[in-house]
Amino acid sequence: MTRAAEVLHVTHGAVSRQIRQLEEQLSVSLFRREGRGLLLTPEGEMLRASTSQAFDQLEQACVQLKRRASDAPILLSCSGSFLARWFIPRLDKLQTQCPGLKLHLTASEEVQWPLASGVDAALRFAEPPWPNDAQVIDLAPELMGPVMKPGLLGSEIAPSPDRVHSLPLLHTESRLQAWPLWFGAKGLATTGIRHDQVFEHLNYMLEAALVGLGVAIAPAYLVEEDLRAGRLVAPWGFIETPARLGLWISPGENRPVIGKLIEWLKAELVQNP
């Protein structure tokens, strides 16, 4: 009660009166005394859980409103791999093509909803259906395929997909289902897939592929520069997975700068599939 009074800048007695009035209105006891302190009753715990979520959403909405009223940059969240391998190499192009768009980038590996406090938008690969209260702009399909250092297959021009069985398979902990998904799409048996090397992060797996330690399974968007430069090859192409790349924004978000970001992302993803 004392801490609540300090936060609300009212007296201890004012908080106590409000609690009593709330208990009378709800016809339940929200607190019980234990020694010199107070503990929540089961009814109080139930109310605390629901109101905490509501207050979090209210705080997030207030943060968003303050950011809209200011000239603050858009805080965009995406995975560390997508940030390093796709977005950062294009920042100069974004600034040239959208000079009025101020953008701050932050790395997060979680598909988090509601968005973290202060985050305006998030780029995520995730499978539909989306949360009912989320506004998700569908940007592009996820394309996944094996990539390796040139020469790992010798001089073969058009190797059969089952040749992958003869190569060391590289995995990442966050997408252990990627290889079975690709094997199934190619009509190969999904049982007995070897786990020759499992990496904590996708970037580590791709670095291992770049030095010839094996064949990695990776999203096309994250290896397109390596493929273009000839550092990696994708002899069997890429398959479309159930996941989609989407821009997750709060419901009702309609700032023109967000619209510019969406237009640029769509154009860039189509241009660089």
UniProtKB/TrEMBL annotation:
It comes from Marinobacterium lacunae. It holds the Pfam family LysR_substrate. Keywords: DNA-binding, Transcription, Transcription regulation. GO terms for molecular function: DNA-binding transcription factor activity; sequence-specific DNA binding. InterPro entries: LysR-type_TF_proteobact-type (IPR058163), LysR_HTH_N (IPR000847), LysR_subst-bd (IPR005119), WH-like_DNA-bd_sf (IPR036388), WH_DNA-bd_sf (IPR036390). SUPFAM superfamilies: Periplasmic binding protein-like II, Winged helix' DNA-binding domain. It comes from the Bacteria. The keyword Transcription regulation applies. This is Glycine cleavage system transcriptional activator. One of its GO terms (biological process) is DNA-templated transcription. Residues 1-41 form the HTH lysR-type domain. Belongs to the LysR transcriptional regulatory family.
